[in-house]
Design a protein that fits this description.
316 residues, TIM Barrel, three-stranded parallel sheet, 8 strands, 47% helix, binds zinc ion
């Protein structure tokens, strides 16, 4: 079994259940209870699964959306800080097995930048996870430039995690099971990341690093089309969209344990930009490691995807 670093491994801080509950409406009460129990646990249950999966280190992040749906900015700032302090105390009990992504109050760019800096400098976190838009505002918004300046200066990896869209998509209404993780989150999150690419965000912040789950939220499959249509519509960028996707975006395999999209992503962006994640506790136990341990790959490529790429990028 290949040694691994896992990058989308969720937890809940005390009192954060109500934020999370807003995105968990379709989950049965039984599964909800089990998920909350696992999210709030940092001992034998979680470590035992990591051992079975060959995960040396899990980078923990809040199960979204957290304070990003908080209407009161002062409360968001305070509770994000409390959550990061809580996680830091848990990591301190097992610093050999855990690391952390900061939770940020994106309602306030300066407060978010300050908290990111505090989390990385004082708490030794390795970056941040942002759960989609914040009360309808996306990450390309000019009011957030001070945040991105700081993230770039800190060398922070920003993991853009799925969240519900600000408004329901009419095509997904009904009872077909297309909302949220089936399709809606992928469209929303891929669109969010493309706003950064097509708005020239990475011309403005060339050293920014965005991390996406789900093998890049469908982007690797569409690189040629983005370039083709950007030229067709006269999009003003210094480089092709695919260049930014290859140079400013990295991706994890979270929730995508299938060879066809995996091979597509490796071919499109290169295996050095792809990393391991299990989306604990939202995927069946063992499925991610079972996939990556057995998908046909050269041993050195497998080791890079499972461990070395993340170790290098995050300084672990
Ligand atoms: Zn997740």
């Amino acid at each position: 079994m290949t040694q691994k670093i896992a990058l989308e491994e969720h937890f809940l801080s005390p009192g954060f259940e109500d934020y999370w509950k807003t995105t968990a409406g379709e989950i049965t009460p039984d599964i909800f209870r089990q998920a909350v129990a696992r999210l709030a646990e940092f001992g034998d249950l979680r470590l035992g699964q990591m051992d079975r999966d060959g995960i040396a280190r899990a980078v923990l992040s809040i199960a979204g959306p957290g304070v990003q749906i908080e209407g009161d900015t002062a409360i968001a700032v305070r509770r994000a800080r409390e959550s990061n302090d809580f996680l830091a105390r848990e990591i301190a009990k097992r610093p050999d097995r855990y690391a952390g992504f900061a939770h940020l109050p994106m309602q306030d760019a300066k407060a978010a930048a300050d908290e990111l800096e505090r989390a990385m400098r004082d708490l030794r976190f390795v970056g941040a996870m942002i759960n989609g838009h914040t009360n309808g505002q996306y990450l390309d918004h000019p009011s957030l430039y001070p945040f991105w300046e700081r993230a770039e200066a800190l060398g922070a990896v920003i993991y853009l995690h799925p969240a519900d869209p600000p408004a329901a998509m009419p095509a997904l209404e009904g009872t077909y099971g297309l909302k949220r993780a089936t399709w809606e989150w992928g469209v929303e999150t891929g669109s969010h990341a493309l706003r950064l690419v097509f708005s020239g965000h990475f011309d403005r912040f060339p050293r920014a690093t965005l991390m996406l789950g789900h093998l890049g939220e469908m982007m690797p499959y569409l690189l040629w089309r983005f370039d083709s249509r950007a030229a067709f519509y006269g999009v003003k960028l210094a480089r092709r969209p695919s260049d930014y996707i290859r140079q400013n975006i990295v991706m994890t395999i979270s929730g995508m344990y299938s060879a066809e999209p995996f091979d597509c992503a490796v071919g499109a962006v290169g295996h050095q930009r792809i990393m391991f994640a299990t989306d604990y506790p939202f995927e069946p136990p063992g499925e991610a490691s079972e996939f990556i341990d057995h998908v046909p790959l050269a041993d050195d490529v497998r080791a890079d995807i499972c461990f070395n790429n993340a170790a290098r990028l995050l300084g672990l």
